[in-house]
């Protein structure tokens, strides 16, 4: 039996959860059955990483708006190459690839993964609230239309599945849940704490709260900074990530007079080393799909504090293997961080416990489940 030619597509190649998912899928899909290629922007972290695996990368132009250049770029890709399966990740790639595929005479099997349904989340009282409402309606209509031309929808957590079905951008008959996976064996043994701390300039006796996430409204950094400012101790906060709210976040730290205790480390790929160096991981997101950084922090054995939103309670049980707090609740977040300082040890380990179902979060398992969906879909086509 010949290999199935699979094209994985995502709009941006910068480091992020969706890109990490695509990288691990590329790495662990069964190479005896699948020939994997990538379509994304020309340069970026993902491009560098998949090329290390010997994977072909097709540079394409994907715009976040209607663009003839984007249409031509993807049309040319489909004209020049025949793929058995096209698997899209993220709203922009999902829109363009599925749209262009409609007119193909020999259409590949089309799959789309929702890494969180971001456009469904609206923040009342914010600037542009009406625009957010309009965008939500438009994007839902677009995804409902494209669902007709999608062979399989994949959601990375149960909450995304429930929401996608409820708003009719997915249907139970062709929608599956495949949890995000990580390379657990890589995180099972932390790097030596002193070595890791020297790498980031942390003092040996300092108590460090750590956060990983792009500086965007979704990740709740404003609430993290305000909660941290209320702590009556000498702890420090280290934030890995970059984004549109970088300067606003730095300004807020100055305003709260905590700028000497907060470190903005920018976008980095050495997350294993960072998690080895910190004491407690904090993720105060306003919404999520299923955050990979949280899975990695749990795998490395760090106490975790996170918002009780979307896919996070599917990972953390409050008081059992971590602490859950309501989103946007500064007081609750402060109390949880204060409690973690008094008890900076993980609770029940999430990974390695036979009854917690943690095997579903292994990268190899994720790739196996998705590979099975590819095979079943091709047989029924």
UniProtKB/TrEMBL annotation:
The UniProt record lists the Glycosyltransferase subfamily 4-like N-terminal domain at 16-186
Domain Glycosyl transferase family: from-to ranges: 193-344
State the name under which the record lists this protein: Glycosyltransferase family 1 protein
Question: What organism, scientifically named, is this protein from?
Answer: Chamaesiphon polymorphus CCALA 037
* Molecular-function GO term, any one: glycosyltransferase activity
InterPro entries the record matches? Glyco_trans_1, Glyco_trans_4-like_N
């Amino acid at each position: 039996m010949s290999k199935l030619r699979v094209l994985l597509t995502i709009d941006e190649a910068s480091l992020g959860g969706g890109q990490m998912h695509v990288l691990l899928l590329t790495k662990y899909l069964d190479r005896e059955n699948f020939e994997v290629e990538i379509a994304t922007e020309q340069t970026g972290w993902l491009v560098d990483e998949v090329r290390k695996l010997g994977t072909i990368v097709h540079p394409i132009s994907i715009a976040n708006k209607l663009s003839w250049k984007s249409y031509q770029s993807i049309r040319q890709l489909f004209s020049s190459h025949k793929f058995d399966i096209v698997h899209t990740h993220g709203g922009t790639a999902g829109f363009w690839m599925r749209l262009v595929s409609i007119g193909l005479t020999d259409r590949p099997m089309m799959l789309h993964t929702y890494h969180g349904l971001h456009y469904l989340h609206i923040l009342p009282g914010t600037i542009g609230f009406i625009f957010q409402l309009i965008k939500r309606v438009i994007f839902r209509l677009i995804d409902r239309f494209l669902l007709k031309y999608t062979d399989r929808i994949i959601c990375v957590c149960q909450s995304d599945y429930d929401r996608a079905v409820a708003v009719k951008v997915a249907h139970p008959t062709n929608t599956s849940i495949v949890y995000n996976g990580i390379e657990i064996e890589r995180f099972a043994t932390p790097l030596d704490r002193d070595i890791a701390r020297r790498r980031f300039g942390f003092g040996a006796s300092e108590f460090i709260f750590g956060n990983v996430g792009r500086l965007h409204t979704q990740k709740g950094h404003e609430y993290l900074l305000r909660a941290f400012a209320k702590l009556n101790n000498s702890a420090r906060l280290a934030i890995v990530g970059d984004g549109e709210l970088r300067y606003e976040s730095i300004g807020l730290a100055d305003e709260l007079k905590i700028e000497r205790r907060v470190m903005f480390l920018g976008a980095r790929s050495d997350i294993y080393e960072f998690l080895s160096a910190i004491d407690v991981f904090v993720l105060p997101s306003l919404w999520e799909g299923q955050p990979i950084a949280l899975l990695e922090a749990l795998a490395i054995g760090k106490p975790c504090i996170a918002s009780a939103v979307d896919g996070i309670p599917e990972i953390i049980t409050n008081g059992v293997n971590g602490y859950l707090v309501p989103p946007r609740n500064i007081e609750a977040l402060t109390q949880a961080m204060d409690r973690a300082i008094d008890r900076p040890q993980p609770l029940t380990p999430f990974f390695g416990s036979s009854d917690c179902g943690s095997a579903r979060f292994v990268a190899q398992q994720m790739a196996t489940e998705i590979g099975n969906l590819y095979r079943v879909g091709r047989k029924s086509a």
